Amino acid sequence: MAFEDLFTKARDSHIQSPTEDHTHELAATASLHSFLSFSKQGPGKVMKAQSLLIAVLLCWSSLAAAAARRLGGQASSSEEQSAGGSFAGMSARRHLLQYTVNNVDATYYGQGNDARSWCKGNGRPYGDGSIPTVALGPNTFNNGAVCGQCIIMTGTGRGAGFNPVSTSPTKYLINNLCPECGSGVDMAKNGDGRWQVDYYITSC
């Protein structure tokens, strides 16, 4: 098959089919076929073969970029439809931030002290009392990417103080940063002590 036919087939495949791998295969076949064809015709054809190969590779790059943009748009649309509501994009991104943290410290920083929280109500309103709130340390706060998500926290029973963290799984809303907490948790309620906990970050 001539180079022109291979390139036309690759172009038409890109337009008609969303399969990026198939487009790449045809473009690669075209470039290899043309390069070998000119190389066999003697040294005088090598420069022409190299120029042709560069041109084909540039076309290949354009096809790949277009395919990536198309696939990316389809993924974004799917995320927004599945999440729903005005926070659709935010919810879809947050879904990727779910993880578990074990054997870290939980402390208390006082009831109502989240009124000027770092998150500023991002994602969910804070202070309505429906879910108790917490501040996370910088290792898990992700520069605010988890604002408006929740943690499910469980006390291990180990620690010191007068108010141990419940050993039953309890939901808390993430709405603040505790700069000195590392991977730990600071609860916005009255209490005393430093207690070991496990928690995982999830949607509310």
UniProtKB/TrEMBL annotation:
Residues 1-21 are annotated as: Disordered. It comes from the Eukaryota. InterPro entries: Expansin_CellWall, RlpA-like_sf. Keywords: Signal. SUPFAM superfamilies: Barwin-like endoglucanases. This is Expansin-like EG45 domain-containing protein. It comes from Apatococcus lobatus.
